[in-house]
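User: what does the whole thing look like in 3D?
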Amino acid sequence: MSFMQKLMEGHEGGLAHETMTPMQKIALRFVVIGLLFYGLAALEGMIMRLHEIKPLPMIDESHFFSIMTVHPMVGIFGSSYMIVFGAFLFLTPYLMKKPIYSVKLADLSWKFIAAGTFIMWLAGFLFHYAPLYTLYWPLPVDFKQFTIIGGITYIVGVVGIMIGTFLFTYNIFKTILYTPKGWEKQPAWDLLKSALGLEGLLNFFRRKKKEHLVPLPIAAISRGTIDMGLNAIVISSAGVLILIYFLGELFGASLKDTWVDALLYKNIFWWGLDLIADGLVLIFVAGTWYLLAMLISGKDLFMQNIARAALFLEMVVSWTVWSHHLMSDQGQPNILKVVSGEMVTAFELITQGIAVFITLVTLWRARPLKMSNELKFLLGGILGFMLAVPAGIIQADLGMNRILHNTQWIIGTHVHVAILVGLTMTLYSAIYILLPILTNGAKLYSQKLADLHFWLHLIGGIGMGAFMGMAGMDGMLRRALYLNGEYNTYMILAGICGAMLLLAFAIFLYNIVMSIGVKGLINIYKPATIQTNEVVPPQKESE
Amino acid sequence: MADSVDVLSTLKIVYSIYAWIVISLIAWFAYNIVRDGKKEGAKPAIFYTYIAILVVIGTGLHFLTYNTVPWVPYDLNRDKIKPDKVFHITYKDHKITIEGEKPMLIHCGDKVVFDAKSEDLTYGFGIFRQNGSMVTQMQVVPGSRNDLLWIFDKNGVYNIKSTEYSGPKGAFMEVKDAIKVIGCMEYDRYSMK
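Assistant: Here's the predicted 3D structure for the full assembly of 736 residues, as structure tokens:
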């Protein structure tokens, strides 16, 4: 078979799309678009890395900061959200052994999020709208720096993403709680209690443990989805507020920005953002680790009740932890800085530590295991969080925050290691394990390329975070420009590591395209020939 | 008295050691997980000891820094401390304006308050050494109190930068040689001109 034939048809027959259910196709649509947005975010990151080493001629300040504005949005919403949504919309009915509530809503979700992310990206690319993802008041409505059209485009994009998020949230909970046609009535209230981890918490104190109605990964998905829904409400509210100011300006009725209290706004906004950063990321990741550990080991999870109770505890933590972002705000009350900022944040070390412990012991009990792609990426993901979470605890300290806040330490050692090594390697592990289930048995093109992908991503991710962190400790700020090579040694080393990450992604993408073929890739977006709400073909279930 | 250079040097060493320990731990786990051996799970005592260690580390860090990092107690209690000198700084249209004398002259060991006010956007107030390393910082939020109490115990000349993003126009907000500290026995070797 020639190279071109293999590229078009895929490895060993490629993707047999005619055997796929609508839900399998939709899950893959999410994943493919999510991976493309990951590539875009990685490219943007590399452009910024290069500009910090030697200023690029085509990029001025407004362009640089518009890239910095859309880079995390594309990475989180366009990539991580998409991959996670696709996986969970497939896994929730798959693990609950019931059909998805609505295939149409699932299909609409990826369309809204993909379109929203693209529109939001255009706001940066075309109009240089650059208030950063933090949107500190009143910067998003600073008409001296940004155009109205840029702002409105950005908000329209964000609204699209949030609509897609609401549809996902609704679909997930309806799938868990609803009674499919012709089925015996489902105990919705008991299912909800189990899904939220409440039953797990009560079991912790009971002599006679109650049976769990939903599998543990579903409990994690449900818990994270609540935070996701609340976050969408907060971001949407901020979007509406900003839109009102834009429309006022557009129609000649300028509104005073002092009508909004900047510190109160910052508190509410960070409360919402932390439902993602410190809530659903950690919860979804813990749930995914548990699922992966069970699938890889073929055994039940070790200390399942504690894992469920920890998920409930994480809800309390994620709802009360936001103040660690305001430890350098002198108007913020000390009590919030100490209790929410320091003490509650410290609990993340415990909840994440529990997830690490339970996952590793579950795997250990099943040894010897084959060092499969899913296992090695899972271990990489665990390592990422073992490095990034303590870095976060350190910066959420009144003494350390005074000298680390807004430096490259925060965004490098903590954020990028958490997202690129911890979260992304966990997602890669899920992709590798789900690939045969979603594609009804498509074979990976090259194991050597998968190994190369792993090592380049792991070393590149940790290395980039480490060198950014060192620059941060030497005073380099995260949201500033350095055009005179002030931190060039660190930036060159971080740039080399960033290039390794980009290369790792290119290798992975090539490996996947060669596995399923270009035709297979296109066919994912054609309507399914099998019409069913079941997630896998009937014959697949009986195997 | 410890300054940010001392604290961050300690952090570099401690975090680097920690990073190598966890990398080694996962490497050891990966090496052994593919080999046959004992398969039992952890005993409850091991689990609860592990949790206790996490609790001690997570909360102990804050008690440690409260007692070893000098600026933590006086930051938390600054309402009760009478400053020797107050400097007023205004932020507007991406410009930092120091009210009164420039450079701000500070005598060694004086308790000084930097009282910053923003008339438009959210900015940052950061004090930096001549080599670019940070001494301290705070956020400057419009309509909010932004007061930072600080004690210098080394002679030096320091720059002020905005540490918070305030749009592309604020990318290079800096006042060179804004602070001069005199009268100390010791010199800040990274801040001498």
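In plain terms: Helices of chain B lie at 4-33, 44-68, 71-76. Chain B touches chain A through 76 residues (CB under 8 Å).
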